[in-house]
Amino acid sequence: MRGLARAVERLGVTIFEQTEVLDWAPHRVMTARGTVAAPVVVVATEGYGAALPKTRRRILPLYSLMIATEPLSEETWREIGIEHGQTFTDFRHLLIYGQRTADNRFAFGGRGARYHWGSSIRPGYDNVPHVFEHLRRTLVNMIPAASGAAVTHRWGGPLGVPRDWHAAATFDRASGIAFAGGYVGDGLSTTNLAGRTLTDLILDRDTELTRLPWANHVSPDWEPEPLRFIGSNLGLAAMGTADVEERVTGRSSVVAKLMGPLVGH
Ligand SMILES: Cc1cc2nc3c(=O)[nH]c(=O)nc-3n(C[C@H](O)[C@H](O)[C@H](O)COP(=O)(O)OP(=O)(O)OC[C@H]3O[C@@H](n4cnc5c(N)ncnc54)[C@H](O)[C@@H]3O)c2cc1C
């Protein structure tokens, strides 16, 4: 993040930190410190957009949490079989992901933290002891060689989930408002592609990027509460159940098939 900030500042961009955006309108951004006029406004607030009036129904914040172990020895890493730069996941429904960090820790994360009423976002929501413990147990079950490693870091944050689980990069020339987001937790490199897609859309270039399915894609809105609360938490519970069902039966989950449209399958 800091490297990116340095790179854009080298290109002449001024970054204003600690400036909360309250709302936006064509060619204007209203902040807690005053209104900024701009020919183009790019909305890229991802999961945090759920707290803003114009994107409240457009994006749902779904928490993902991670743990990291103490650094593991070369010998343990040889046994585990993961090289630097390699990441992995598996085919369970309640997603998990892992990687070896540059300083040889095992970083391991997943979904499973519940959705909060009204799409609320609070610092405490990314600190859920039972989810951290679930992650630790899952890691040890999958990778017994990591079982003796102490967990030294725990963190998390809200992912941005659109109603159809379809990321988008959009630009409306009349209002000057652009939007990029809805990556459902796969945004680290997708944001780069979104930036390049938006550049071409804003500069009115016809390129292979502006012909991608996500260019000017508009997702439907999420349902109002209480449907959003019930549906999201039901979806999370169903994915956990589907994983147990597949473990027990050894076959594709019926629950997952029924819940497919809700959870983006
Ligand atoms: C625990 C965890 C693990 C993840 N792991 C991976 C991974 O392995 N690979 C991967 O590809 N992705 C991963 N992601 C997802 C990835 O972090 C996001 O997809 C990516 O950060 C999205 O980038 P963004 O710039 O669109 O949004 P964000 O990084 O969420 O940035 C949004 C910015 O908007 C600012 N903002 C929000 N509201 C306001 C406001 N009102 N006023 C002013 N500023 C505001 C925020 O401060 C923030 O800086 C993970 C996410 C989490 C939480």
Could you describe the 3D structure shown?
This protein has 265 residues and is an alpha+beta fold. β6 (87-88) and β7 form a beta hairpin. It has two domains: 2-59 and 163-202, FAD/NAD(P)-binding domain; 60-160 and 226-259, 2-Layer Sandwich (D-Amino Acid Oxidase, Chain A, domain 2), CATH 3.30.9. The radius of gyration is 20 Å and the shape is globular. It has helices spanning 2-10, 74-80, 129-142, 187-202, 227-249, 254-259, and strands spanning 21-25, 28-31, 34-37, 41-43, 60-69, 87-88, 96-100, 106-110, 151-161, 168-172, 177-181. 28% of the residues lie in helices and 22% in strands. Bound molecules: flavin-adenine dinucleotide (FAD). Flavin-adenine dinucleotide is lined by residues 20-21, 44-48, 52, 64-66, 97, 109, 156-157, 159, 181, 183, 185-188, 191.
- By CATH reckoning, the class of the largest domain would read Alpha Beta
CATH topological fold name of the largest domain: D-Amino Acid Oxidase, Chain A, domain 2
Low-confidence stretches: none
Percentage of residues in strands: 15-25%
Total domains: 2
Q: How many helices?
A: 6
- Kindly report the average pLDDT value: 92
Order of helices and strands: HEEEEEHEEEHEEEHHH
Could you tell me which ligands this complex binds, including any ions or cofactors? flavin-adenine dinucleotide
The count of DSSP E runs of length 2 or more, i.e. the number of strands, is: 11
Gyration radius, in Å: 20 Å
- With strands numbered from the N-terminus, the spatial order across the biggest sheet is 6-7-8-5-9
Specify the overall morphology: globular
Tell me roughly what share of residues is in helical segments: 25-40%
**Content-based structural category:** alpha+beta
Main sheet overview: 5 strands, antiparallel
The CATH architecture classification of the largest domain is: 2-Layer Sandwich
Query: How far is the N terminus from the C terminus?
Result: 31 Å
